[in-house]
């Protein structure tokens, strides 16, 4: 089994996955994957195209069933996929409120505006989502994470389409989240520079 053991913190595990197997389209993608995710931890899922990184994130998020193995989640999970889950017919403010409402209470207007300001969309509250660039869409989707209360963040290519400044901001927000007792599992085809970052290479678990 491919294992990542987590930090030496005494905090309880936020998520444990044991001996996970994944099948897609009738084909085995990986098997024997295990991981423990603890408060403060950041885990980078690595592996070649098609090795199953997105599939593993979706299993951990509960969006797809595992072919085998077991997942225990001890804290709420937020998942960010490639599509950003944004509705084109809404404006920025509406889209953010809608996304927040799916996972908990809608935050106060002042906090919502402050987070939009922080991601550089402060003046775009009434701007149509369909007119946002790819990077702006990513920032809006990330704003939803920062406003939510999930301790476990599962992020598929979160740096995709972000400019250098936004990548640095994301690094800072991930650090803040970890220091506040959260944890993150992410994929990225570009280098990730986070202190204490652990890696799990799925290539070793590909069937
Ligand atoms: N909808 C689908 N139906 C059938 N097979 C799929 C589907 N989506 C992905 N797969 C297969 O599952 C395997 C794992 O795909 P996945 O997207 O998890 O890999 P990945 O490591 O995230 O890839 P990448 O680095 O290219 O993003 C691949 O072999 C892919 O062909």
Automatic annotation (TrEMBL):
Keywords, comma-separated and alphabetical: ATP-binding, Cell membrane, Cytochrome c-type biogenesis, Membrane, Nucleotide-binding, Translocase, Transport
Residue intervals of the ABC transporter domain: 15-204
Cross-referenced Pfam families: ABC_tran (PF00005)
Protein's UniProt keywords contain Signal: no
A single GO BP: cytochrome complex assembly
Gene Ontology MF terms in the entry: ATP binding; ATP hydrolysis activity; transmembrane transporter activity
Transmembrane segments: none
Domain of life: Bacteria
Annotated protein name in UniProt: Heme ABC exporter ATP-binding protein CcmA
Source species of the chain: Ideonella alba
């Amino acid at each position: 089994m491919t294992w990542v053991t987590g930090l030496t913190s005494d905090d309880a595990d936020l998520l444990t996955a044991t001996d996970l197997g994944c099948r897609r389209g009738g084909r085995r993608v990986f098997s024997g994957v295990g991981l423990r995710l603890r408060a403060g931890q950041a885990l980078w899922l690595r592996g070649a195209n098609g090795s199953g990184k997105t599939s593993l994130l979706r299993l951990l998020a509960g969006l797809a069933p595992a072919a085998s193995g077991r997942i225990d989640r001890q804290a709420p999970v937020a998942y960010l996929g490639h599509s950003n889950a944004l509705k084109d017919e809404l404006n920025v403010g509406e889209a953010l409120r809608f996304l927040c409402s799916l996972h908990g209470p809608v935050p106060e207007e002042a906090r919502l505006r402050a987070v939009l300001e922080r991601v550089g969309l402060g003046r775009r509250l009434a701007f149509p989502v369909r007119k946002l660039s790819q990077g702006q869409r990513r920032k809006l989707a990330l704003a939803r994470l920062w406003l939510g209360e999930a301790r476990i963040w599962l992020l598929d290519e979160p740096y995709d389409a972000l400019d250098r400044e936004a990548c640095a901001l994301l690094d800072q927000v991930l650090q803040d989240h970890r220091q506040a007792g959260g944890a993150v599992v992410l994929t990225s085809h570009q280098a990730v520079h986070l202190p204490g970052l652990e890696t799990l290479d799925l290539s070793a678990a590909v069937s």
